[in-house]
UniProtKB/TrEMBL annotation:
Protein name: Acetyltransferase component of pyruvate dehydrogenase complex
Gene3D superfamilies: 2.40.50.100, Chloramphenicol acetyltransferase-like domain, E3-binding domain
Domain Lipoyl-binding residue range list: 2-78
Originating organism: Octadecabacter antarcticus 307
EC numbers: 2.3.1.12
Lineage: Bacteria, Pseudomonadati, Pseudomonadota, Alphaproteobacteria, Rhodobacterales
GO MF assignments: dihydrolipoyllysine-residue acetyltransferase activity
Length: 428
């Protein structure tokens, strides 16, 4: 019996991908576990293995095809000599040139996710959903008819219901209004192009990563109530201590960066202020036990935020080694989804680019992000009242007010400052 192989969802946020390369050809025999294709998601290029056995009877989506929707048939596997065809399968079209339609406004995305009716049986009387998804929906008071399924053939699965908990039914009705409000804030792609009629320019198509960044950060700025706290941090003690440690660690080939200390300082501060070690989950808050800290890494065309789990328990040298490995693989787009998803807090350090200070946008569902500027020599008034020169680093803590109030945020930033200005204490 011929089996359709569907475009897989290789990450929870994946809706479409590029079939970058076929590793098999028609007529090849495959077994369960064999790699058959390389698929480019919004974040990485990943190998896809089949769980079925048989002969590759027909390749339905050509190598290099972009914009292939999840659950679209991409090839057919069957037995030798078997007739292999698929009435439902058609090669996915090439993605259109980037425009306003490519960058879906958050409210529109929410409406698509939570308001689109799930596929029903031919008689229209039944929704396709897994038993677990039905149970979760019942517990959350959700109407399955308002949830779009991402499973095979549109079946509603656990992830669909869990994602919909942050979008209750009442929000569905409000989504079109929110969408309209967003639409009038900026001109359409055609209007912008017409504005520059007669001027020379190049249209650059948005790749999957840029679309996701645009969508998620627009959503974050529109839906997360940010507020900002700022502190200057004296680095001289830390820099001296770091220099001593690096001399000691040199035989082991370890070189600690200031960023390694910042990661450790934030991880310990989240343990000192445990209420701030939390994420927003729609109708409740999840207070985390471990300090899982994400760190922004710039790559060509975008950025990753790999997560260092249990950062409070790891030594500075372990954090340094793990961060170097994650950053290196991030730049090659070789991170697995579990390595850049999760966490409750993030760090964005632009100090190495000479930036004095800036305000970072929170990456939902995180409750905060620390923006780190460059350390620079500045005159300050010492504790004895005398003016002296010190290395000062400016930091800004962006906070989600739904999770963290002003006093709690201030305590968190003060704890981060105290850790960095007394670095030996972080090793105790």
């Amino acid at each position: 019996m011929a089996i359709e192989i569907l475009m897989p969802a290789l990450s929870p946020t994946m809706e479409e991908g590029t079939l970058a390369k076929w590793l098999v050809k028609e007529g090849d025999e495959v077994k369960s576990g064999d790699l058959i294709a390389e698929i480019e998601t919004d974040k990485a290029t990943m190998e896809f293995e089949t769980v079925d056995e048989g002969i590759i009877g027909k390749i339905l989506v050509a190598e290099g095809t972009e914009g292939v929707k999840v659950n679209t048939p991409i090839c057919i596997i069957g037995e030798e000599g078997e007739e292999m065809s698929s009435a439902s399968a058609a090669p996915a079209p090439k993605a259109e040139a980037a425009g306003v339609a490519d960058t879906v406004a958050p409210a529109e995305a929410a409406a698509t996710t939570s308001a689109a009716p799930a596929p029903a049986a031919k008689d229209g009387s039944r929704l396709f959903a897994t038993p677990l998804a039905r149970r979760i929906a019942k517990d959350k008071g959700l109407d399955l008819a308002t949830i779009k399924g991402s499973g095979p053939h549109g079946r509603i699965i656990k992830a669909d219901v869990e994602n919909a908990t942050a979008q209750p039914a009442a929000a569905s009705a409000a989504a079109p209004l929110a969408s309209s409000a967003v639409a009038v804030t900026g001109p359409s792609a055609q209007q912008v192009i017409k504005m520059y009629e007669g001027r020379k320019f190049e249209e650059i198509k948005l790749d999957g990563m840029r679309k996701i960044i645009a969508s998620r950060l627009t959503e974050a700025k529109q839906t997360v109530p940010h507020f900002y706290l700022r502190r200057d941090i004296e680095l001289d003690t830390l820099l001296k201590f770091r220099s001593q440690l690096n001399k000691t660690l040199e035989p082991r080939g370890v070189k600690l960066s200031v960023n390694d200390f910042i990661i450790k300082a934030c991880a310990l501060a989240l343990q000192e202020i445990p209420e701030a070690n939390a994420v927003w989950a729609g109708d409740h808050v999840l207070q985390m036990t471990a300090s899982d800290v994400a760190v922004a890494v710039a790559i060509e065309g975008g950025l990753f935020t790999p997560v260092l789990q249990d950062a409070e328990t790891k030594s500075l040298s372990a954090l340094s080694a793990q961060m170097k490995d994650l950053a290196s693989r991030a730049r090659e787009r070789k991170l697995a989804p579990h390595e850049y998803q999760g966490g409750s807090f993030a760090i964005s350090n632009l100090g190495m680019f000479g930036i004095d200070n800036f305000d970072a946008i929170i990456n939902p569902p995180h409750s905060g992000i620390l923006a780190v500027g460059a350390g620079a020599k500045k005159p300050i008034v010492g504790a004895d009242g005398e003016i002296k020169v010190a290395t000062i680093m400016s930091t800004t803590l962006s906070v989600d007010h739904r999770v963290i109030d002003g006093a709690m945020g201030a305590n968190l930033l003060n704890a981060i400052k105290a850790n960095l200005e007394n670095p030996m204490g972080m090793l105790a």
